[in-house]
Structure of Phosphotransferase:
Amino acid sequence: MSTPVLHLDDPVKRQKVLELVRGLDLTADTQKKIRDVFESEMELGLAKNPPVASSLQMENTFLPELCDGSEEGDYLSLDLGGTNFRVIWLRIKSGAVVSEAVQYYQVPEDVRLGPGVKLFDFLAECIHNFMDGRQLKGQNLPLGFTFSFPMTQQGLDVGILVSWTKSFNCSGVVGEDAVKMLNDAIHRRGDTDVDVIAVLNDTTGTLVQGAFVDRKCAIGLILGTGSNACYIERADRIEKWEGEHKDVKEVVIDVEWGAFGDNGVLDFIKTEYDKEVDRNSLLVGSFTFEKHFGGKYLGEIVRCVLVRLTKEGLLFQSNASEELLQHGAFTTRFVSLIEEDNVNGVDVNTTGALNELKLAFNKEDIEIVKYICWLVSDRAAILVSICTASLLERMDRPETTVAIDGSLFKHHPRLKSFMEKYIAAMAPANKFQLMLAEDGSGKGAGLIAAIASRLKKQQAH
Ligand code: ADP
Ligand code: MG
């Protein structure tokens, strides 16, 4: 497998195209610089009194262990903030999930934008409804709460909301503990015996879910709408960790790498296309790193390149369709489809996508579009691989499994193989494998509830 190649008969045109996308092709020097910056940002993020603020939150999840195979019993999880809101039930026996059920609920708009107390009452009602329909009533069940919003954790079961994002904006919750608000709502009802004992985000859930099936798992990655990672860090390297934790050797650290570069440290990799994607995004100047490759943005980056090349007279006979000029019109699904053509040496998906966008195109246009999708996908893999390789070397385990969740990773036909190639080259001494761990944000939360229950029992003894 080689690096992206553009096949065009006309050498002058070829040169012009390459010139306009040069910035997307990360040189070895640039890659090295990204890695250096990532490593210094990680250190700053773990420091107690950093001289300058890091763009990496390096959040302590307070999760000191993964599943050890002794977990047993019934657990619930609640997943809020991903694409779907749902309640999940897991029954674990002898280290395996023997039964499970999931139910999806719609959070009405007035609840998403109303007072926080109403939101948590609604969540408690869904839990009640879920248990009611499944003969779980009357049981005391521990619950793991996946709360995929920026939060500061102060314990495994304390998550302070920093800000609402996505389609949520409830009053009276920012600065409050989401776990306490949910527990209060459950207790207010008086008819549901559930204890929220852990709060997490999807990345931590993915790691736990991955480790449940593969004990070598020590990194969790999200490659979906956005991107993030967590890994197992030595407690003695977390300088900023205050309070009692003498007996804790390791803990899961949530890197929050989607925001890597928000302080300007990655400005040297930004192309005009990345800047345009940022300008047209919801939170301008935030989530710098993930805007370079997240599922929400990958297609949009390609679109920005195609529009520019069209304007320069290098594509579609200088005619961009109205469709192509629409933000978001070139989806990341198109990138996957066109990459499939690159894999199979055919054009069928590419012509399909271009037809959908009502573009008039010739053979050369197809070549260029296929090349751009390849180049942007390749850059995505390089960026994720740099940071993953860095985590692998940092943990320095003989063998590590990386659990990955998210539709981008799942559906892109060769992101995985690109990453395998790059990570192997970037962390040559550390054996690894990439594993799809679906639904970490759902199932993982139930597993964390099981771990938290076990830890509670151990502490009580
Ligand atoms: P979330 O990140 O919200 O939990 P997902 O993991 O399902 O949800 O990721 C959703 C993202 O996946 C969307 O931004 C979308 O662009 C991307 N996506 C959906 N289908 C595909 C596909 N076929 N190829 C690549 N990316 C896709
Ligand atoms: Mg998800």
Q: What stands out?
A: The chain has 14 helices and 13 strands. Residues 53 and 402 are 28 Å apart (CA to CA). Residues 73-212+439-455 form a domain with the Nucleotidyltransferase; domain 5 fold (CATH 3.30.420.40). The pocket of adenosine-5'-diphosphate (ligand 1) is lined by residues 82-83, 224-225, 295-296, 332-333, 336, 406-408, 411-412 (CB under 6 Å).
